[in-house]
Amino acid sequence: MLKKEGKYRYFEAGEGTPIIILHGLMGGLSNFEGVANFFPQHGYKVVIPELPLYTNNILKTNVKAFSRFVKDFITYKGFDKVILLGNSLGGHIALYHTKMYPEKMAGLVITGSSGLYESAMGESYPKRGDYEYIRKKAEDVFYDPKVATKEIVDDVYATVNDRIKLIKTLTIAKSAIRHNMAKDLPKMTTPTCIIWGKNDIVTPPNVAEDFDRLLPNSDLYWIDKCGHAAMMEHPDEFNKIMLSWLKKSNL
């Protein structure tokens, strides 16, 4: 059930410290179902805005503009400080937001995030093509290919065969490569939790190690038998790690 207010469409549940979740390029809000069901029971308000990936003017279809959208949304909701959780492109937007607006950040959680590893946005995002090719690409995102349900594959197939969406997808991919965060990370002191699939072939484990090495205030956690979307593939383990990190960090 999405709330619609002005230019914003978002899911919201629970009361307490706000956790704002940023989805990836091919990922819908439902990818975070496990997180959205769990954290409201533990004293957090979970908010998942729909990012304007395909609705913005092409000049505002980039990581920087999406980060500003997130800041405006936080202001609109009247939140003082938030915890941002992002997967894939959502992680990259969360990182860029943290760089630009550190005063809004209580904590940051990234999983399978782009921002350091250039081909993360290249090879993994399917080109237009036949259904089988796209099914294989979708399966590659997960350690267990069965997680790539027909519904997920259908969504990706529809996106890459929509000409406008395809152009915007490629624009976003180029923007992600342009906004490499390597030089910024050492200056970002927001407490950061890095949760990574040990078998991620989109953003491999060494990317997580680089994030951990470059960020001055980070903790790195691994999930075994897990690909690029840990919160989908192992929701219980993901939630447990994130909750214990939030408690440890007094967030």
Q: Briefly, what is this?
A:
With 251 residues, the protein is an alpha/beta fold. Helix content is 39%, strand content 18%. It has helices at residues 33-38, 63-77, 89-100, 131-140, 150-160, 163-178, 205-214, 230-233, 235-248; strands at residues 3-5, 8-13, 17-22, 44-49, 82-87, 105-111, 192-197, 218-223.
Overall radius of gyration: 17 Å
Q: How much helix is in the residues? A: 25-40%
Strand fraction equals: 15-25%
Provide a count of the helices.
9
Strand line-up in the sheet with most strands: 1-2-4-3-5-6-7-8
Tally the beta strands.
8
Explained architecture:
The chain has 251 residues and is an alpha/beta fold. Helix content is 39%, strand content 18%. An 8-stranded mixed sheet has the order 1-2-4-3-5-6-7-8, with helices on both faces. The radius of gyration is 17 Å and the shape is globular. The mean pLDDT is 92.
Write the layout of secondary structure elements.
Layout lengths: L2 E3 L2 E6 L3 E6 L10 H6 L5 E6 L13 H15 L4 E6 L1 H12 L4 E7 L19 H10 L9 H11 L2 H16 L13 E6 L7 H10 L3 E6 L6 H4 L1 H14 L3
Parallel strand pairs: 3-4, 3-5, 5-6, 6-7, 7-8
Antiparallel strand pairs: 1-2, 2-4
Helix pairs in contact: 2-3, 4-5
Index terms:
251 residues, alpha/beta, eight-stranded mixed β-sheet
